Amino acid sequence: MTPLRNLALLAAMTAVLAGPVAAEDLKVMSFNVRTITGPDGPDRWDMRKDLFADTIRQMDPDVIGTQELGQQQGDDTVARLPKFTWFGRDRFGGHKDEHMGIFYRKDRLKLVKSGDFWLSDTPDKVASITWGNIFPRMVNWALFERLSDHKQFYLLDTHFPYRDTDEDARSRSAREMAAWTAKLPSNVPVIITGDFNTGPESESHKALTASFKDAWSTAPVKDGPEETFHGFTGKPTKRIDWILYRGVTVQSMRTITVSKDGHYPSDHFPVQADFTL
């Protein structure tokens, strides 16, 4: 099957599963890009950047929370998808390292305000590291307004530490995010995207779902495997990429498994949720 036919079939199947997408639906994607510096051989960024953009084009999200994004990857993507733009500092406060970059459709959403904070004992200190982390960990956030009806929502995007020994740091990070979002206006919906590097059985998930719902667990329509990390094999083993929400209604949730000639746009499957805002 040709790549274009593969992607077209994916879009058609999505439409059948989810039904017609209403104009008021909000499509939110979470996508771990896979770092541009990884020693990935045939799966290096130059070999998959077109498929990465094609996947987004076919799924047609309004907003995307990414992880491990390099500045070049962000710029390559918007060059191929000019209806999108992206923003965010990297985890050291500049643009030379990994970003939790947020992409959005300029013709659908207005960026009202944005910011970031670090997952540490000093969240306002750029690049701060505590809790045994070996790299800074952070949250990129934005308040968006939908142009069609002026409804607003917050989006937070994050990437938790990955080592088995980081479970306490992940739990602390989740509690910090829960406390931060508790201070937001109660009448404005909040959506969280991220690679949490832990499963739904974890303390991190428990801490966040005390005040948020998990789109995979609650969506009335689901498509694709539950697990998301596959290491470029196409055989996922862990559900570590989540979309959480409050103040909206989830209509459908899908794990996107598109590939081209046995290669994938990332070592994670992206996930996308459709919400009624």
TrEMBL record:
Keyword Cytoplasm: no
Gene Ontology molecular function: 3'-5'-RNA exonuclease activity; endonuclease activity
Gene3D superfamilies: Endonuclease/exonuclease/phosphatase (3.60.10.10)
InterPro entries documented for this protein: CCR4/nocturin_mRNA_transcr, Endo/exonu/phosph_ase_sf, Endo/exonuclease/phosphatase
Residue span(s) of domain Endonuclease/exonuclease/phosphatase: 29-268
Keyword Hydrolase: yes
Keywords (A to Z) from UniProt: Endonuclease, Exonuclease, Hydrolase, Nuclease, Signal
Signal peptide span: 1-23
Protein name, UniProt field: Endonuclease/exonuclease/phosphatase family protein
Organism in which the protein naturally occurs: Luteibacter pinisoli
